[in-house]
Amino acid sequence: MPGVTLANRAAHANTAARLMQQRQCLQAEWLTPLTALQQIEYRLDGHLRLLAEAAPSPPDAAPGAIDASLAVFCAWLLAGGTPADVIPGWVAEGQTLAPTCTALALAASDSQLNDLFDALPTTALGGAPDLLNLGVARRLALPATLTETLEDAAPSPSPVPVGLWRWAARTPGLEPALFTDALSRLTINDPEYSSELEGALMRVAAGARDQLLALAGTEQTTANSSVLRLMVLALADAAEPLLRRALPHAPRQVLPLLPLVGTPWARDTLIEALHCPEQAKAASAAWQLLTGRTPPSRPRLKALDGDTESDDHAPDADAAAEAMRRLPTGPVLLGWSVGAPDHLTRTAANWGGRGSELLLDAIAIAHRQPVLPSATATVQRRVSALRQVLADADQQREAINALPA
Asked: Which DSSP string do the residues of 20-31 spell out, in sequence order?
């Protein structure tokens, strides 16, 4: 192992595992600076490539946590390892694959992943939803065998592996009728087919307004938070009645979606929520999406020490509400809160985390494109996909130039 000793190999593996854990924590935040994720991924890639020079071997079993063994597995993938040789056996044994998918997302090439999916039968994927979500995040084309599975299921709502319809929605070239037929036979409160519904919604969101309005009139629209998000994005200016009905039942899911509506009711509802301790966190998430900044804060008072101020901070509801009153109202799907056509893209180019899924979905629907990578994709893949979607949008040239290199 020229240049790599046994001692520093272990050090590189431990450092890589620590960086993976830091990346996971940042992605779990509602919004986190994309530059911070980019720096971590750059350092992580360096350590993994040094490990790859040491000709690592694959583990005997699927890694069960983010640790040094997972880092070595990443290095094996970078060195040209063949995941199709080991992962089907792990799937057959029912081993947990979430950490394994972290390694695949970071280190496997598209050709390695395509070979893996070709080696897995559809029945095996039913027990490995993390692998299906990986196909979504990497924007891989749906394998022909899985496309046939969906086409066979189309005449009636027969169960298919969780996530398969969501992946199909992100694959160019599939017949729109496949999705409109699925949408017409589903009810929004049927949890058994929630992934099918989500996929169908995403694919037809830009062109099936009558169907969506009919679904929006049902009573159980809040049963699936992803479905609720997609409905609001697709209906835009007609979404306020949907959110009004859903708010009492699911305030934490509804409040971050209010910036999409941009009506006086949405603004006043957010201001009221900022003053409510139980709803302040969700309202703060909406504030971040509106402004691209964290909301104003103030020191939190200690409950047991009278007026003594602690080091913790809470949202400053009065300051945030006053600033929010000055924001323009009106439908803001493309312009978000400031009315500029590139604001939504700029926000997506600056922020990662769970909340950025909403930004990426909004861009995809607005441009009638297959869905962009998920918020868990690497920064490099996310930016590459944004560039691809916006390449023909003249009004967003400035936004493209602002994307990270």
From this structure: HHHHHHHHHSSS
